[in-house]
Design brief:
This protein is an alpha/beta fold. The protein is built from 19 helices and 25 strands. The longest helix has about 90 residues.
Length: about 725
């Protein structure tokens, strides 16, 4: 069958159109399937999201339900806490209130409102200003010299202050409160009124009790001072006459009795001094008066005073002073001597044989100056471990047995501890029973202005080798060490044979010989040394200077120095000079004759006690002076006007007119301004001594009077050109003796 070309073309176009339509259909179907797939995936995702959100919503709903229950519980707990707080605030005995930042009262307990019970308006909602006005204008509060308006203004000013200080309010009804107010971070003001009525009453009772106690202490101190005066007055006669009796010709038995009376009297005076010192310290009235002291010389002086006691027991007293420790320091000289006297005196007291060593060491510098340790070591009875904590207690002693060998008050170490504590130091003890004890103190002492830098003392250039002969190990070691520090080569010997061999073998430039050589005689050894080397300079260290004077007078010695040895004296002796530190003036004899052709020294002595007059007269009977005695201060003033004495000894406690008033009247006269007046008193309290010196005295001697101190006072204050040759003074008196 044949088709026309047109028909074939149309059929071809239709076929092509159908093919395109089929392909388009297939493409659309493919895209539709893809879109369908995507829609399906999206539907699944939306379904998952809806499910997840539904679960989250359920959880939120559950949490909301839970929170609603919690909020309800919190609200209930908060209400309960507020109720508890209000109940607790109400139970407070102290007033409690809270004001907001606008000064409105928002909370107050009944204790706070109780004082305002007659003013109903005082309740939450009232202003702070109004409460202050009610207190001031209604007379509720003692305004203490303020006007009502001023007091209100003051209270409002406290409100505005950055920091509100506590204050006391005294209400008219007898209640006193301490008002403490604090501002919190939100501006509220918390006010606490503490009732201090009972506290103030108790405080008043305490003050009254303290005043009564202080009055009792003052009464006790006054009683002790008066008793001291009353005891010292007759003791002046006992000790003074005993000392005078000892100067007469006595046999051995009589001299023993006399010395016993004297030592017993001195022991009684020491006990009185200890009791007075303890009473004064117990009352807190001890004062320190620092001054420049030579510490090395102070230690040496204390040992020198105690040497006779140590010599009776054959004890060696030794000083070891640190060569690098400055000697001039600032301290209370009297208290330092008292501490050393107590410690060294105890060491001698409880040591039967051996030695007592005082060592002073500089252990560093401090803000106060020089830190100094002073130790007192002995070879005595020692102290057991269980008793070492008790030795510094009052009325405590090492021995507790009923029949004690050692007498005393048990106050010495207690007083020493209080003195050291007052100086800012500390005290300690180390001891072994039966071996010995070591007491030590540690104090900070300022170095005196202008003090020379410490260090080894230089030796003369001719001294290179020194032979030291001593059988005392510690003393020999100290001297040897110091000589070596000064640059000398030291050869030591303990026996004459070794000493003589060293002299021949080494030819020393100097020999130092200890007088105490045990079994050997120092004089024989001295002779042997001079036989081998007649030109050898020899310095002897002597426990008994009297035994060495004969040798020394024959120029066989360079010098004879007393024990304990003061190092500067040895250096001066080695250099061939006089000692740089002479003995205290009280140990020097008063000149019996002075070149004068004018008149004798006129001495006026004012004393009402007949025994004391006799003691004084006998003490000066051998001196070249003219003595006039007055019975009281009034007579002393009258006799001074006519006699114009050169020296006046004035007793302080006398009838009609005491020594202070008499001194003031004498000082007021034109010719009495410069006359030396020396007070004589049995008072020992520092306050009384200060009053005595303030009256115009030049010096003071305490009773019991010692002859050496009396002679020293005359030497220091009497014009030397008025002494004349004579043996007995002329004595005059208005009332007689």
């Amino acid at each position: 069958m044949n088709f026309s070309p047109l028909y074939r073309d149309a059929l071809a176009r239709e076929r092509r159109a159908r093919l395109r339509a089929e392909r388009l259909y297939e493409q659309v179907q493919h895209e539709l399937r893809a879109t369908n797939a995507r829609l399906k995936e999206h539907a699944f995702a939306l379904s998952d999201q809806v499910i997840s959100q539904r679960d989250e919503l359920n959880r939120v709903r559950l949490l909301a339900d839970s929170l609603e229950g919690t909020n309800s519980q919190v609200s209930q707990d908060l209400c309960l806490a507020n109720e508890r707080l209000r109940a607790a605030v109400e139970t407070l005995q102290d007033g409690f209130a809270v004001f907001d930042k606008s000064q409105v009262l928002i909370l107050a307990n009944q204790s706070y409102l109780a004082v305002f019970r007659d003013f109903p308006e005082v309740q939450p909602g009232i202003l702070y200003r109004r409460i202050a006005e009610i207190c001031a204008h209604e007379g509720l509060v003692d305004l203490e010299a303020h006007s009502a308006d001023d007091w209100v203004a003051m209270m409002l000013a406290r409100w505005s202050a950055p920091s509100i200080s506590p204050m006391q309010l005294h209400f008219r009804n007898g209640v006193s409160v301490r008002l403490v107010e604090r501002r919190v971070s939100n501006g509220d003001l918390v006010s606490l009124s503490t009732n201090i009525t009972e506290t103030l009453r108790y405080q008043s009772e305490l003050i009254e009790a303290q005043q009564r106690a202080e009055a009792a202490v003052d009464a006790k101190s006054a009683f002790l001072a008066n008793m001291s005066h009353e005891i010292r007055t007759p003791m002046n006669g006992v000790i003074g006459m005993t000392d005078l009796l000892a100067e007469t010709d006595l046999d051995d038995e009589q001299r023993s009795y006399t010395e016993t009376i004297s030592s017993s009297g001195q022991a009684l005076v020491t006990i009185i001094n200890d009791i007075l010192d303890f009473s004064k310290m117990d009352a807190g009235k001890m004062e320190l008066h620092p001054e420049v002291i030579d510490l090395e010389k102070t230690i040496h002086d204390v040992l020198t005073l105690l040497t006779p006691t140590a010599r009776k027991k054959s004890l060696e007293l030794i000083v070891d002073f640190d060569i690098f420790l400055p000697t001039l320091l600032m301290a209370d000289a009297g208290r330092i001597r008292q501490v050393l006297t107590n410690l060294v005196g105890n060491a001698i007291k409880f040591t039967d044989s051996g030695y007592v060593l005082v060592r002073a060491l500089g252990v560093g510098n401090s803000a106060q100056g020089q830190l100094v340790n002073i130790t007192v070591e002995d070879t005595g009875i020692g102290i057991s471990k269980e008793h070492q904590d008790q030795v510094f207690l009052e009325f405590s002693q090492v021995e507790e047995s009923a029949n004690r060998r050692f007498e005393g008050t048990g106050l010495g170490l207690a007083i020493t501890r209080q003195i050291v504590t007052a100086m800012g130091g500390k005290i300690w003890v180390e001891s072994d029973l039966g071996i010995g004890s070591c007491f030590g103190i540690s104090v900070e002492l300022p170095v005196a202005e202008g003090a020379v830098t410490a260090g080894p003392a230089p030796l003369p250039p001719t001294v290179h080798k020194v032979l030291l002969i001593s059988d005392h190990l510690i003393s020999r070691d100290i001297i040897s060490r110091r000589l070596q520090a000064s640059g000398a080569k030291v050869l030591t010997a303990t026996q004459s044979g070794i000493a003589l061999r060293n002299t021949v073998k080494t030819q020393p430039d100097l020999a130092i010989l200890d007088q105490d050589l045990g079994r050997e005689d120092a004089q024989d050894l001295l002779a042997g040394l001079l036989e081998h080397d007649p030109d050898l300079p020899i310095v002897m260290i002597c426990s008994n200077l009297a035994e060495s004077r004969l040798v020394h007078s024959r120029d066989k010695l360079r010098a004879a120095l007393p024990k304990p040895l003061l190092w500067r004296d040895l250096i001066a002796a080695i250099a061939g000079r006089e000692k740089t530190a002479p003995r205290p003036k009280s140990h020097q004899a008063l000149p019996q004759t002075v070149a004068s052709t004018t008149r004798p020294l006129r001495v006026l002595y004012a004393e009402d006690n007949k025994t004391n007059q006799l003691v004084f007269t006998k003490m000066v009977k051998s001196l070249p002076l003219e003595l006039h005695v007055a019975e009281n201060g009034r007579q002393a003033v009258k006799m001074h006007e006519t006699l114009r004495p050169d020296v006046i000894f004035m007793d302080v406690s006398m009838p009609e007119m005491d020594g202070r008033e008499a001194t003031q009247l004498i000082r007021a006269s034109s010719f009495g301004r410069d006359v030396p007046i020396i007070a004589l008193t049995a008072h020992a309290m520092q306050e009384e001594i200060d009053r005595i010196m303030a009256a115009g005295m030049n010096a003071m001697l305490t009773k019991p009077l010692k002859k050496a101190e009396l002679l020293a006072a005359l030497r220091d204050h009497a014009p030397e050109d008025l002494f004349y040759s004579g043996t007995r003074p002329k004595v005059a008196s208005l009332g007689g003796i």
